[in-house]
């Protein structure tokens, strides 16, 4: 394997968990990169790319039950007609923005799991996202589900990478944490000597924990001897955003997935990549904004999936897409929707057995205006753990009812 | 004589970053007088006078003009943060910006963002209720959370939910039903896009009784706000938010919380918290880091050419905190979230940029010290209590080159912490 290429993409940030900080003080990235020639990846090992859609993705506007009784009445101006949707069958169709998804669906490489949620849904973006990221619906703790997987997988941050400036909680384990790699890449400013940074990176006895953390970030920086250079993404200070209230997430999904693609093609050891797209909190004038956002999602994901299908390593990649909740069934009259509950999850990739899964929640039997979930999100996580990461769902989730048939 | 270290700590937290002279003056005046002067300055703010609020047209149709206007506000605000003499007030205004976390990305108007900034500045020190009532009429906030689309026929919950969850009470102090009923109380507000003002349109307002937090009445925006502010959870929530930004991410000690909750104004609450025991270390937010560095180096963004001001904004973008563009309605992260490798790299770059612009007198002050004492001179300049041996080892080889020394000091782990 091309060591340089592999090194190029793995640059970690400081870890987030306090335990991780205490446990990992003697460990630097250089040690990690020195193991780049390890063959620590079994030949059949798959890779998970988890896509978080921030803001609450309206499931009823992705996979549209256009023929169902009550749909048009509930959605009024937001409703799509049978002619407008991209039909999957006689009763459901995809949003017109999801043309690539249809292609994947026809190739049986896209699985749609409908009605995914959890009991006693919370309508706060932040709380609900905590629930999805910790996979602890009763009481979200301070470890993410993939962070806990990483704990069981030896805790090496290389194995769970996020292309976001700040590590998402889902990659924070109890004793380890994934690596946050900025899309823009890292490069030392001119005139800064590695030796100086090495000195900054040392710990000083008795210094406060956060200061020690600041120092450790230098140690991580030093360990990068081959630096990422920008990957066709310039961070403009005028980011485009559709009409949603900001609730987190990146806008540069395609740039993030390009990095993932290059990492996968370089055969890195990473088993989990986390990427995100924000802007789904569309309380008003939803239809057009959503269509363009879905189009962006569609193009980024299907472009990625089609690129992945071309290489052996890529054909072992499974993409999973989720959001913290769907939207209220009835439109709110600002041509938007308020925070709701159950929504769709999507799985894409060569290993996926495409099709429609799960039961579409009823539009007439509602819980205070909201859909009743039909699939516990942890069952999809359990499948991903078991069939993509070869891990024990019970150990990571305390839940082992995997959703059958997806992979 | 007051403890210099304690005073430096106080000033680092109450302001965007004190200069050595400000710490000297505080040392002469003592802690109480210093805090009094911060909270209620005797003199007019000459720095604010030097940086007048820009006058901006409300109506702008062209996308490029709108982006330029937002940029103008961003440039102006950073300059104001650096130059203002009423530093506690200025920093508190920025705190409130993170609290109400409204982004120009959706509001798309520099004039309205500036209007909100002015509302936050005007009400920031006073009674929180006045601020809440003003913010419920703030066009930028209303647009940010779709308030103008919230009508009797078609309630929109966005503003009501965030008002309770993020602005006044916190999660767990209201129910889903309260959100729905609260949204009804906030119906009917519309924005006049030619004047940039908000007003209540009675026809769009739901004047029927609502039941919110167990009380039934014909709530409107003000009576809904009054109901929220009367909840014991409200002052506690604000005290905790202030504690997180000014004192540490450790739990607020019970006696400080109890005393803070009783205070009639935000200024009084902040005073209690700044004087309280139990402060933990804080990581400087990028804006604090940059504004503080500019102050200590005597650099005024307003005096810089456009391309350099742009470099500062782009530096803030790389550090992850651009005023007027919070990443989410939850505001910016705190603590270790700012200490990633990418932020460290961006700080190094910014530190070089700033040191490169440092005026000669600042460099001379460093250079005037004998080489062996230059690291101490640097600590004084940057109001760092002490550099660790680790950092001294990194700084000492650069002692012969004041500009380089300065760049390294700004990038150092010690300078990342408040």
UniProtKB/TrEMBL annotation, chain A:
Source taxon at top rank: Bacteria
Family annotation (Pfam families):
DUF1501 (PF07394)
| Region Disordered, residue ranges | 230-251
InterPro entries associated with the record: DUF1501, TAT_signal
PANTHER family given in the database record: BLL7424 PROTEIN, DUF1501 DOMAIN-CONTAINING PROTEIN
Please give the name of this protein: DUF1501 domain-containing protein
Automatic annotation (TrEMBL), chain B:
Q: Which Pfam families match?
A: DUF1800
Q: Which InterPro entries match?
A: DUF1800
Q: What is this protein called?
A: DUF1800 domain-containing protein
List the source organism.
Dactylosporangium siamense
Q: What is the lineage of its organism?
A: Bacteria, Bacillati, Actinomycetota, Actinomycetes, Micromonosporales
């Amino acid at each position: 394997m091309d060591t340089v290429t592999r090194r190029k993409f793995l640059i970690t940030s400081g870890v987030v968990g306090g335990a991780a900080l205490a446990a990992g003080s003697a460990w630097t990235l250089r040690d990690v990169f020195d193991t780049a020639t390890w063959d620590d990846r079994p030949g059949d090992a798959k890779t998970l790319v988890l896509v978080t859609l921030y803001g609450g993705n309206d499931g009823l506007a992705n996979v549209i039950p256009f023929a169902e009784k009550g749909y048009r009445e509930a959605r009024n101006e937001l409703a799509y007609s049978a002619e407008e949707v991209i039909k999957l069958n006689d009763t459901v169709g995809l949003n017109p923005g999801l043309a690539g998804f249809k292609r994947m669906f026809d190739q049986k490489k896209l699985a749609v799991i409908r009605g995914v949620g959890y009991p006693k849904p919370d309508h706060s973006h932040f709380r609900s996202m905590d629930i999805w990221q910790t996979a602890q619906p009763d009481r979200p703790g301070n470890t993410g589900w993939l962070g806990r997987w990483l704990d069981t997988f030896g805790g090496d941050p290389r194995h769970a990478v996020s292309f976001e400036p700040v590590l998402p909680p889902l990659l924070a384990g109890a004793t380890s944490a994934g690596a946050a790699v900025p899309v823009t890449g890292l490069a030392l400013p001119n005139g800064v000597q590695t030796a100086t940074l090495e000195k900054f990176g040392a710990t000083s006895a008795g210094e406060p924990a956060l200061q020690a953390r600041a120092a450790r970030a230098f140690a991580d920086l030093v360990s990068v001897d081959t630096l990422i250079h920008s990957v066709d993404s310039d961070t403009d200070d005028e980011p485009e955003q559709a009409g949603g209230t900001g609730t987190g997430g990146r806008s540069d999904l395609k740039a993030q997935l390009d990095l993932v693609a290059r990492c996968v093609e370089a055969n890195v050891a990473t088993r989990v990549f986390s990427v995100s797209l924000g802007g789904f909190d569309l309380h008003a004038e939803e239809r057009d904004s959503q269509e363009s956002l879905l189009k962006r999602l569609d193009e980024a994901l299907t472009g990625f999936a089609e690129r992945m299908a071309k290489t052996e390593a890529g054909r072992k990649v499974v993409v999973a897409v989720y959001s913290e909740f769907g939207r209220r069934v009835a439109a709110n009259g600002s041509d938007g929707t308020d925070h709701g509950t159950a929504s769709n999850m999507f799985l894409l990739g060569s290993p996926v057995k495409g099709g429609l899964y799960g039961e579409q929640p009823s539009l007439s039997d509602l819980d205070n205006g909201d859909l009743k979930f039909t699939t516990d999100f942890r069952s999809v996580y359990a499948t991903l753990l078991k069939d993509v990461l070869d891990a024990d769902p019970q150990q990571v989730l305390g839940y082992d009812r995997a959703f059958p048939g997806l992979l | 004589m007051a403890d210099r270290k304690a005073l430096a700590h106080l000033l680092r937290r109450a302001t965007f970053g004190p200069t050595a002279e400000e710490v000297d003056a505080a040392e002469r005046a003592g802690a109480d007088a210093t805090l009094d002067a911060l909270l209620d300055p005797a003199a007019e703010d000459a720095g604010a006078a030097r940086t007048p609020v820009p006058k901006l047209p409300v109506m702008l149709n062209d996308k490029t003009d709108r982006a330029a206007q937002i940029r103008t506000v961003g440039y102006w605000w950073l300059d104001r943060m650096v130059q203002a003499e009423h530093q506690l007030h200025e920093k508190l205004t920025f705190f409130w910006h993170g609290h109400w976390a409204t982004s120009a990305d959706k509001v798309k108007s520099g004039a309205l963002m500036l209007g909100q900034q002015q509302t936050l500045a005007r009400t920031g020190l006073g009674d929180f209720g006045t601020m809440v009532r003003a913010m419920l009429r703030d066009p930028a906030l209303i647009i940010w959370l779709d308030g103008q689309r919230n009508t009797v026929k078609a309630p929109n919950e966005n503003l009501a939910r965030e008002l309770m969850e993020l602005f006044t009470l916190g999660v767990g102090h209201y129910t889903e039903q309260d959100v729905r009923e609260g949204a009804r109380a906030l119906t009917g507000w519309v924005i006049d896009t030619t004047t940039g003002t908000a007003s209540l349109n009675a026809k769009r307002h739901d004047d029927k009784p609502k039941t919110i937090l167990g009380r039934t009445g014909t709530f409107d925006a003000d009576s809904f706000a009054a109901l929220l502010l009367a909840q014991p959870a409200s002052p506690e929530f604000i005290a905790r938010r202030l504690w997180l930004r000014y004192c540490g991410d450790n739990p607020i000690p019970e006696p400080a919380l109890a005393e803070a909750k009783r205070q009639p104004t935000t200024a009084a609450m902040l005073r209690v918290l700044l004087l309280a025991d139990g402060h933990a270390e804080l990581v400087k937010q990028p804006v604090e880091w940059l504004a503080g560095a500019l102050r200590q180096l005597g650099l005024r963004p307003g005096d810089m050419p456009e391309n350099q001001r742009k470099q500062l904004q782009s530096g803030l973008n790389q550090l992850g905190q651009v005023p007027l563009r919070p990443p989410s309605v939850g505001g910016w992260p705190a603590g270790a979230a700012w200490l990633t490798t990418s932020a460290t790299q961006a700080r190094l770059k910014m530190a070089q940029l700033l040191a490169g612009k440092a005026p000669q007198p600042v460099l001379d002050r460093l250079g005037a010290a004998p080489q062996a004492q230059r690291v101490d001179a640097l600590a004084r300049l940057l109001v760092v209590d002490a550099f660790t041996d680790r950092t001294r080892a990194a700084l000492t080889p650069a002692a012969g080159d004041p500009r380089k020394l300065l760049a390294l000091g700004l990038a150092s782990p010690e300078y990342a912490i408040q």
